Amino acid sequence: GFADESFSVYDHPKVMIFENRERLSATEIRTEIESEAISRSALNKLEPRSPPKDLMMDEELLLSQRSGGTWSGIINKDSITSRFPVATWLAIIELISLCALPLSFFVFRGLLARGYLLAKILGVLLTCFLAWLLSSLQLMKFEDTTVWVSLGALTLISSSVLYFRRVEILSFLRIRWKRLVILECVFLLAFFSFLLIRMANPDLWHPYRGGEKPMDMAYLNAVLRSSYMPPYDPWFSGGYMNYYYWGQFIVASLIHMSGITTEVAYNLAIPTLFAFTAGAAFTIGSNLVGRTSLNLSSRTKIIPFAAGMSGLIFVCVIGNLDGFFQSFGILSDRIFNGISGGEFDYWRSSRMMPPD
Known about the structure:
Helix content is 64%, strand content 0%. It is mostly helical.
């Protein structure tokens, strides 16, 4: 069944009972345990360490964090972006990719298609990093303006590359535009494929179907509401988050740009990360077989594409076959044994060992 950690870990922690087989006395047991420990007299000679920095925000920073805006100020549920979240989300991703494309052409100029699919990853990472830097240095509050300013800075850098290499880039686009269209289809296919999976199980709150997503959502909302980085701790009032939050920061930045609600954006972010991974795997796989040139035959040109798709499938699809075996088992029970029902166990496929 499902691994419900709220039962096996929190409400009912594991109890360990030790058996005194040698019938030792309490004094002997204590001596055995403390035999390798530092004696109390030695501890008294150690100089006390300076107290570590606490995880609490000062009063000024706390007030600034609490002024990060209300949900209605960040997200408008009646806006056109909230009514068409998938189209809006993809438009934002494609816009960032387009702004980073000239820079990507220069950085990945040694790769096939100039690393076209990597431009999406590069653009998102650089835009969010600039926004994080501005909010961490408290030069600007973390809000939609900050993210758009960061994208503008990336666009300026990329535009300078386009200016100095415009002949090379425009010539490549004119000759290889069909290949770029195919690569874009690969990205969209990966995105919509995983979007269908999220549509089948969009829970973000359920104890075992949602998994750790309730905690993840709390961190995402905290990052989104924070004025400066590091964000406030949603589990410890008055403290700042003592946890890695870069992934949540990326999603929060895209939420600021799009105005989509967090629960919808979360289910769009997961397919996006899958599509990014698929694009990177495809790029690496296609480049492992070597570069192609314009004078190759059509049969030879298909080899990099086949290698790219193989890399994508091995990394993103068949790297974990448990999902396939689960689905096959459910279908077999229904067809051959007449057993209806049975649910897909998302927890089992994501664990290296059986649940408690």
